[in-house]
Amino acid sequence: TAGITQAPTSQILAAGRSMTLRCTQDMRHNAMYWYRQDLGLGLRLIHYSNTAGTTGKGEVPDGYSVSRANTDDFPLTLASAVPSQTSVYFCASSDPGVPDTQYFGPGTRLTVL
Amino acid sequence: GENVEQHPSTLSVQEGDSAVIKCTYSDSASNYFPWYKQELGKRPQLIIDIRSNVGEKKDQRIAVTLNKTAKHFSLHITETQPEDSAVYFCAALAGQGGTSYGKLTFGQGTILTVHP
User: Fold this and answer.
1) Would you call A107 and B43 a contact, using CB atoms and an 8 Å cutoff?
2) Is A86 part of the contact surface with chain B (CB cutoff 8 Å)?
3) Confidence band for B29, pLDDT divided at 50, 70 and 90
4) pLDDT confidence band for B97 (50 / 70 / 90)
């Protein structure tokens, strides 16, 4: 199985433009998460979804939106990108059979100019 | 909300020595504490975790200890090797602990360098 995948691997985006980061998992995990990673700040939760059809806000949700139409996909959208959203974005999922353990995707490096 | 502090931010050891990384957390309701290893340009990988009903857990050269009273937990790596060089993150589970879903709060990370 592929596990958890993200696309694109990297992207340079002009400020003010919109962008959707894609995340797909084939493990049938119910819960999915989006984090951003910035130097010296570790990983911070942006949004999460406990199950298809539901989403919730994390620690740093402003400027981002998510949707969860099905179990496998959890896209993250930046409606109007700003330079402070330059970061590495990681998607993660967790297996209800092993509560709380989260597995990470390979990440997307986003630069907003 | 939960706050996790991690120390030190950098740690340099000689091959074969032990390394210890410490984390403190603020929410006494937190009950799940994973440790992740992240190599340069790669994704975080879970290396060990501990739940609040135990005080210590070992897996070969790595171990984690938890002191719920003091609200701190530590990662111990023995007989370090150059391939242990990476960034290590601790985390604590806030919110709906013990169910399928949880919001992890991460520490700021420790850059571990093991010199041959």
Assistant:
1) yes
2) no
3) confident
4) very low
